[in-house]
Each structure stands twice: as C-alpha cells, then as structure tokens.
Automatic annotation (TrEMBL), chains A, B:
Stored PANTHER family: UDP-GLUCURONIC ACID DECARBOXYLASE 1, UDP-GLUCURONIC ACID DECARBOXYLASE-RELATED
Native source species: Sphingomonas aracearum
UniProt keyword list: Decarboxylase, Glycoprotein, Golgi apparatus, Lyase, Membrane, NAD, Signal-anchor, Transmembrane, Transmembrane helix
Gene Ontology biological process terms in this record: D-xylose metabolic process; UDP-D-xylose biosynthetic process
Localization (cell): Golgi apparatus membrane; Golgi apparatus, Golgi stack membrane
CC terms in the record's Gene Ontology section: cytoplasm
Superkingdom assignment: Bacteria
Name recorded for this polypeptide: NAD-dependent epimerase/dehydratase family protein
Cofactors required: NAD(+)
Span of domain NAD-dependent epimerase/dehydratase: 20-260
Length: 345, 345
C-alpha cells in the first residue's frame, strides 16, 4: 500500500524511525493509529484481528505511511517486523481482548497475550532501543476498596476467578514491563486505561456503552446488570488517545503507572438516562444478575497524569455520546465508510 | 539408570502411569520425589538445575523408578516427556526459583516460568488426562493486611515492584490453572505454600532459615533484616510434602486454593534465638534494611487444609531445626552423601 518514495521522504524526516501499534486494529488502537499518522509518524499496525474489526482500518489503509501486518503476538514476531527491529522508535502495546465475554472465551490465550506477547514486544523494544508503552487497565484494581483509585493502590483482585485471566494477565504484564525499565533494558511507560467509549467499539463486545447504545438504537430490550447502581467513569476515545501519546512522549524514568480516564463518575442507570434521551428509545429495561467479581465502583484519580502530562479529558459526555450514537446508528444501518474520528473531536 | 524389566513391573502395577515432578531437583521437589518413590510411584523429575542442587538427587538416582530429565519448562517439553504424554497420571509443578535474590536475578525468566511453564505442563496434563498440582505461594498475599491469611483474602501485592515477577507470576499461574479446571481441560489442585525449611535448602538462596543456620554454623556475623520483629511461620519439609501429596489425591472439584504451612508464627528474632541455642553460636548480629515490599507478618490459616485433607503439620520446630542444622553442618563441612530425609521424620 505504500510507494517507496513517499515512505523514504517521511521516514527520513523522522530519522527513519517507525512506530509499532500492536492491537492497532482494535477500538482504541485504530484511533491511535489515525492520530499518529496525523502527527506524521510512519505506523506499522500489528493485529491478529481476533476482536478487532477490519473496518476500523478502512480509512487508514490508503495512507502512504500506514502498514498493516496480521500476526498474533503470542507467537514469534513476523519477519516484516523482526527484520526491521532496529528501525522502530516507539512500540505501543494495545493488544488484548478487553471485554469480559471476549477475554474469557479463551482465557489461556488472554493470559499468554498479556505475558508472552508483552515479552515479545519488550524484546523488540530492547533490540530497537525503542520506547515501549503498555496499555494496562483499571482492572488491575479489581473491585476497588479505595475510591477514587490512585496508582499506589494495590487493588482488590481475585486471582482465582473468571476475570483473573485478564486482570492478573495485565498485572503480570505490568510487572514484566517495569522489570525491563528497572534493568535499563528499555524505556517504558505504563498507562492504566479506565472505561473508554466512542466510534469503533465492537457492537457485540458486551461493554456497557456499546450494549446500551446498540440496544436503544435497535429497539431491543435494554439489559442492565444488577440494579444499575454500580458506577463507571467514561472517557471519550479522542481524549484517551491524546493521553496515551502524551504519556509515550513524557519525561521521567517511567517507572510508575499512570491512570488515564475521565473522573466524571456516574451510575449505569444515569448513563442509561443519557442514552435514552439521545436515541429517543422507549425500550423496556431487563435486569440480569451482576457478573462474578464485577466492580461496583470505578473512578480514576488522574492527578498524576495532570501533573506529569498536563493532560485531562476535554470531551463532555453529551458530546462524546452523541458522536458514538451517530456512529453506531450508521454502523447498525449497514452503511458504508464512517468518518474515522467522529464529531466530538 | 533404569533396567527396563524393573520399570515395566512397576508401572504395570500402577496401571502404567507416571508421575511428573517439575522442579523435582529443588529443595521441596527432591523430598517430594523421594516420598513418591517410597509410595511406589514411577517418578520423572524435570528440572533445569537453575537453582536446584544436583546433590539433592544423589540418593534417588539409583532408584529403579526414578528418571531425571534436564529441561526448562519455559521451552517446549522435551521429547522424553512429550512422547510419553499419555502415560502421565499426575503432574506436580514445583518449578520456579523461590527466593528473592534468585527469582530477581532474571525476572523475565521467573515470570515466563510461572506462566509459560505452567501452560506447558497444563497442556501435558490435558493431553494425558492427568491431574495437575500447582505449587503457588503465600506471596500471592503480598504484605498481608489480613492475619492470619485465609484463602479468600485477595492479597496486598505491589504489581510494579521488584518482587512482582514472582508474586504476580504465581497469581497468573493460579489464574491459568483454575481456568483449566473450570473449563474441564484438566483436574487441578493449587497449594499456597508458606515458609518451609529443612535439609536440601540452598545455603546461598537468601532465605531466613538457611541464612541464620549457615551464618551461625560458620561463625560469620548474623544478618537480620530490619529489627527482626517481622514474623514468619515455618513448616518442616516432610510436613509440606505430606500436605502436597494429600492435596493431589484429595476429592472435590479442586477449584479453590489450599494454604499449606505451619501456623506456628514467630518473629525472626525468636527464630534466631532457637538457632543460636542449637548451634551454640555467639556470633555478632548485623542489622540491614528490610528489602522492598518485604511482608511484615505471615501466618497461614490452615482450616481448609485440615477439613479437606485431614492434614496438619506434626514436626515441632525444635526437632525440625535440629535436623536442619545437622544437615547444614555436614553440608558446609564438605562431607559426602547425606541421608535423604533427616532425623525429624
């Protein structure tokens, strides 16, 4: 998809360095790729397309500085990446199924993606002399007893339950990443991502925003797990991508994780109210039991991100949710190409 | 080391099934191999000899039902194991460096041993239809805020620190093991081992019993980390081995971890008093700073093990410590073969 001349011009300007985005075809990954391209990076997107939707990349494929490589990071990195190891300057690791039904479908693969996949990418970064960023998760806090969650909180995670493949996988990936950093094997950054929403979410992934919006739009009964009083804090995807890029380029030794998310906490019932108002849906609400180990409250303390990155979320919920509903409406309507970044940007 | 005729007779009696002990050349592993052989098992001991001492196997090598295979479980299992996969009836996974200086020397290898190694052995158990036992650790509780520690306690573990490669590695190994159990891929058992001591400890591994005993015996100054008021609960190795074997053969679905250890809690200073009395040492005591994330208190709640396994430790500290001192005295004196199981049995 690239003409050699164009790529040379570009990579020369960036000292020939490439940016790897593992999981780049996923929800957040595809927005990150778009933002990196807009900044002038040459992006190599690595994805196994396990949970990603190829349509997420539709608008990127024709970009002269974008390459897509289909591969699973639990195996050896493909030659098209490994043979150019020395050319990578930045390695973003966003690769892992992130919604419970998806990461629980093959829990061993989830764990190996977190641990073996991260190990493979850290070795690449070490070989390349590249900076590495791990996208960890608020799930490392489990069902938190500290509120809001600060990075120093050690979490309340059940390591024997059905969510552990992801929660403990990510905790293990953090441990591995910080070991590389402490030993000077690579410059590292670790983001703990809280709930994020926006266009390119998978309609079927079982996350609360996509569930509610898709059900409201389709007129299906709306599923609320538990009584809906559990809280989440929702960050629009453009804010999240800006935070990830700021963290990657930040100074310091990188040996501390950084929460990224929107501290605007609300109950699931409140979110439902917004969705119903936006979509005009009058669908019935069906309650189902809370999943095992489902966290009751989630809200990031983002003081560290503010201080370190001069970053905080800017997109109000009403605006982000309108853009998300508009995108899902087109998506569910079976329409063709959607704008890569929706109105809320 | 085996004559084919002997092995056939034996394995026929046990329906041809073999018992795999990964990490079988280590401290606890070597005692477990001896006890399994005494029970009549045909034992295949797999070890990379990273932290194990080959001399631990001295008395086993000539046993007709014992085989040693040198291999690292982070890689594919060796043909001598994989080719006989269907013959294994029991798989014990004790493979991992377990003392901080050793597991921190190559933290990535520690993590991969826990996760990739456990995955390889679980796959073997699945293929074999064998029952699998993971030796997890009290370290999954971190620096615990609940005392004594019950299995339902979620722990207080720092997933970003220098102990995380082991603590989080074991938590990840538990997650993986319980996923195999829940999915019906293998029958699983998980033991959380608390501090254990006895002959075959590595004099250099930095654990408190071996440190104190070796320093007292050699007349070197005795190192106490912190003020010595931190507590541990020490289980003699023969009790631990009995607990592991009872857990492996126990009924139930195996989907809950089981603490194994001795609830006889004491401060490190109290332990030192016993060691000085036993050895007659008058060496000076040197205090050093506590390592990062060192747990302040450790004591297992073993109600679950008592109820499920009808097991509890039987060897009093004075007896176990005398046997341990006697063994170290011979070992440090450079003497030849030691008795496989010391007087305390």
């Amino acid at each position: 998809m690239n003409k050699k001349g164009e790529r040379m011009t570009h990579t020369t300007r960036l000292n020939g360095k490439l940016t790897l985005v593992a999981g780049g075809a996923g929800f957040i990954g595809s927005h990150l790729c778009a933002a990196l391209l807009a900044k002038g990076d040459h992006v190599v997107c690595l994805d196994n397309l396990q949970t990603a939707r190829p349509s997420n990349l539709r608008e990127l494929e024709s970009h002269p500085n974008f390459e897509f490589v289909e591969a699973d990071i639990t195996g050896p990195l493909p030659a098209s990446v490994a043979d150019r190891a020395h050319r990578f300057g930045r390695v973003y690791n966003l690769a892992c199924a992130a919604s419970p039904p998806q990461y629980q479908a093959d829990p061993e693969h989830t764990m190996l993606t977190c641990v073996v996949g991260t190990s493979h990418l850290l070795r690449l970064a070490e070989q390349a002399g590249a900076r590495f960023l791990l996208t960890s998760t608020s799930e490392v806090y489990g069902d938190p007893e500290m509120h809001p969650q600060q990075e120093g909180y050690r979490g309340f995670v059940n390591c024997t339950g059905p969510r552990a493949c992801y929660d403990e996988g990510k905790r293990a990936a953090e441990a591995l990443t910080f070991d590389y950093g402490r030993m000077g094997r690579a410059e590292v950054r670790v983001a703990r991502i809280f709930n994020t929403y926006g266009p390119h979410m998978n309609p079927d992934d079982g996350r609360v925003v996509s569930n509610l919006v898709c059900q409201a739009l389709s007129g299906d009964p709306i599923t609320i797990y538990g009584d809906g009083s559990q809280t989440r804090s929702f960050c629009y995807v453009s804010d999240m991508v800006a935070g990830l890029m700021a963290l990657m380029e930040s100074g310091g030794d990188g040996l501390q994780p950084v929460n990224l998310g929107n501290p605007n906490e609300m109950t699931v019932n409140e979110l439902l109210g917004h969705v119903l108002a936006l979509t005009g849906s009058t669908a019935a609400v069906e309650h189902r039991p809370l999943p095992i180990d489902d966290p009751r409250r989630r809200r990031p303390d983002i003081d560290r991100a503010k201080a370190l990155l001069d970053w905080e979320p800017r997109v109000p919920l009403a605006e982000g949710l309108a853009a998300t509903c508009a995108w899902f409406a087109e998506e569910l309507g079976g329409a063709g190409g959607q704008p890569m970044v929706a109105a809320a940007e």
